[in-house]
Design brief:
The chain is mostly beta strands and 299 residues long. It is 13% helix and 38% strand. The two termini are 27 Å apart. About 15% of the residues have low confidence.
């Protein structure tokens, strides 16, 4: 796990071939289906091109995004989401959760073309952890309404539901100003990297061959964030730094050289109350809670 992961999944889909006897009337149906699929693909491509890099963020060596939750309103102070391992302070140790930490971090917000639309400062790190997930969530002074009005920046909405296998996705890097398109290949029950453990992890198909600077990039499906790009197995190593492995539900360990992973974000949506207030005690919230026994020593 680094600020500069390379995502390349080795697991692909399997095509199933079938035979059927078609009448002239029946043969028209596949053509209609193909036409509909092509139209949807064209529409999706056009929507992707229109969205561009809107809402993405350069996070000093990592990527990120301006996000809003299903309960957010235009007058709420905006949030910025990236990886926990991109946190500017001391990296949280396994089992540690940082909540409401002061921050003065500078973010470069991207416009549709990828240019810098504005630079804003974080006022607080609302939540940071590498336990169970790999996220850092910041709050800035500006509201969503102010970002849109003054800078033309539109936030990306975090989906409230877990995505499905096979879903078409875009991984959009505000640091590299590049985007990658592929599909969700599947889900790892757990991903182990040194002492860090993430759960219910998205694995990509090989087309999302991301490079340095993509840590924290939003993973988008139908225009909403479903995950955050965070790590990959570079060299085929087993459960080591930059060489994560997968653990199945029965405890079996497997290694997939080149496989790229993203941490799910529907966990986060369930933990956000009106006013963009993080509430770890909210019904349905899956994020790990802060343990006072693991509070960092006062400096």
């Amino acid at each position: 796990m680094t600020r500069f992961p390379t995502a390349r999944a080795l697991l692909g889909g399997v095509a199933l071939l079938g035979l059927a006897l078609l009448t002239p009337a029946a043969s028209a149906a596949p053509a209609a289906v193909a036409s509909t699929a092509a139209a949807k693909s064209t529409a999706a491509t056009a929507a992707s091109a229109a969205a561009g890099f809107t809402g993405t963020v350069d996070v000093d060596g990592c990527s990120g995004s301006v996000v809003r939750m299903p309960v957010s309103t235009d007058d709420d102070r905006a949030l910025v989401l990236t990886n926990g391992h991109c946190y500017e302070g001391a990296q949280p140790v396994p089992g540690e959760v940082l909540v409401n930490r002061p921050s003065h971090r500078l973010f470069s917000l991207r416009d549709r073309s990828g240019d810098t639309a504005a630079q804003v400062h974080a006022t607080k790190a609302l939540y940071v952890t590498l336990t169970g997930t790999d996220i850092a969530l910041y709050q800035i002074d500006e509201t969503y309404r102010e970002l849109a009005r003054d800078h033309g920046v539109t936030a990306l909405t975090v989906a409230g539901r877990r995505p499905a296998r096979g879903t078409a996705i875009r991984v959009v890097s505000g640091s590299l100003k590049q985007e990658f398109s592929c599909r969700i290949d599947g889900f790892a029950y757990r991903v182990l990297e040194t002492a860090n453990v993430t759960e219910d992890v998205v694995r990509y198909t090989p087309e999302c061959d991301t490079g340095h600077g993509t840590s924290g990039s939003p993973v988008l499906a139908d225009g909403k964030i479903v995950a955050v790009n965070n790590t990959s197995n570079h060299d085929g190593g087993r459960c080591t730094l930059d060489n994560p492995c997968e653990m199945a539900r029965d405890g079996a360990i497997s290694v997939h050289r080149g496989a790229g992973y993203a941490t799910a974000t529907y966990w986060l949506a369930a933990c956000t109350a009106p006013g963009n207030r993080l509430d770890l005690n909210r019904a349905g919230c899956l994020l790990p809670r802060a343990d006072p026994r693991r509070a960092p020593a006062t400096r």
